[in-house]
Amino acid sequence: MNIIMFGPPGAGKGSVSAFITKEFHYPHIAAGDIIRSEAKKPHNKVEAFMKKGELVPDQVMMELIEERLHQPDCKKGFILDGFPRTIAQAEFLEHQNIHIDTVINLVVDEEEIIKRLSGRMMDPKTGEIYNIYTMKLPKGIKKESLTQRPDDKPEVIRKRLQVYNEQTAPVMKYYQKSKVLIDVDANPDLEKVVDQVRLVLKNKRK
Ligand code: AMP
Question: Per-residue pLDDT for 134 more than 90?
Answer without folding.
Answer: no
